[in-house]
Amino acid sequence: MPSSQPSGTASVTSTPDRRYVVKKADPGCSRLSSPVPVHEQLAFLNEASRRIGTTLDIAETARELVDLAVPRFADWAAVTIRDRVLIDGELPYPPADGSAVVRRLAGAVAGPRSDDYVVAWPLDEVTTYPAWSPFARCMTSGKPIMFTEVDADLAEELSRARGRDDVRRLLQGVSLLMVPLQARGRVLGIVSFHRFPGSTPFDEEDVTLGEELAARAALCIDNARLYSRERGTALALQSSLLPADLHDPLGLQIASRYLPASDLTGVGGDWYDVIPLPGHRVALVVGDVMGHGIRAAATMGQLRTAVRTLASLDLTPAEVLFRLSRMSQDLDATQIATCIYATYDPVTRACTIARAGHVPPILLLPDGGTEVVDLPPGLPLGIGGEPFEMREIVLPHDSVLALYTDGLVESRDRDIDTGIDKLRRLLSVRLRDLEDICDATIGAQRPGDERDDIALMLARVRELTPDEMAAWTLPAEPSAVREVRHGVRATLDRWGLAGLADTSELIVSELVTNAVNHARGPIEVRLLRGRSLVCEVGDASFAIPTLRDPDTGADAGRGLRLVDRLAYRWGHRPTPGGKVVWAEQRIL
Hints:
Shape: elongated
Distance between the termini: 79 Å
Low-confidence stretches: 1-16
Number of helices: 15
Mean pLDDT: 85
């Protein structure tokens, strides 16, 4: 074993990269004696079990290994890992030519050569070891390689393998031990131990001790690799399933945040969404799948897709949650999820909300006050078959509706009610910008050590301007058609959309003509301008318009076929007093 080095002031310094540790002699850290007694070996390995693998981070685990080995076992040590392990967490099969592409991840050095070693062996440098090199042979065979003393010829060979001439003089005369980092039958990389001239060279007993040390470290590194790969996969999966960009719908301003769990539980199943509905209405959704990891993220993706599919049917929030609950019973009975679903109409500012076991929404009023929206909680998705209740409220202009998951208000030392009260106080702070409100809320409610992920979505309400909406109330008489045609053309000219005037006139005249011929009572016509142009015609009839092929020479059915040809899309929805038929055109 290495002979004792001269004692000096205990000191540990680091280069700017904390993974490369430079040490001076420390009287409190004695070298292992030679030969090493069994009790001293066991104590050293027991210390390795305690100090290596304290985190699920590959670089940190590598640093812990070299920091333990130097100077008690070697004067210089370095951990080199296969590059693909670090890039994507995969264990590549050796190339056909036997070479090895590696990256030096951590190093520690003690003694007078410390500065030279830091310069000659930089970290994060990708190196390809040729098949004939001892480094590649060590990884290919999975067996340690020891050189009692590196002579001039071997130093030349090693420097060529390293691809750097400046390491030749550093290697000459040292005792070198290379041990593979092997876990679960695969070699992740190697750890190199050096003893400078003047220290006791390595022997077979040191090889055995080095293998034990490397085996324990390799298992920790492989655990970190597996964790990083699973977490990365789950994050990528969830990121791909969450909306990439939330466009502000008509009459609303949206801001959102998602934070994965900050500890080992990783990513979870929280999600949020903004779903366009006919007539520039919108559905606001926040959900939470209990649990963490890829399984929770996958279930979240299935539920989010199902919600979007149900939303396309233009159902009420209660009906959407009821059908979603039925569908979730067929996904995974062990995965419990909650959800809140709200629809918003920018014309009336009516918001209809239902929730399935989810935390209640909070409404931030224009005067700075807050209130928890009184809403029946319902059962989580997939539990029971009872219908859900919903509530309709009219949101004041400049109010903010906050939808969130329980990770924002519940923790190990705080119950939900306390968390909701704190959230209300945070929201009442007068910040105009929604992004600032999100940041302040997340920062105050999430100190950094929580076990659940968070989804937060804020929606600020604003009234529509005359440049965004025009409306007419007409009698159910033929003269209404001419009146609305003139009104539509004048409105579009004022909005700078004269290019859509001819098409819009034809669409609105056909829809109003149908209402005059088949409905009763006053006819409501609206033009809504957002990311597209929507024309709505409402009447007091519950009869559903049907698109059909007219017989040759028949006039019936030609109006809707013309609308179908001219509009980007069209449809209808029921209202408490009848129905609304709508047609949408793209604004280029």
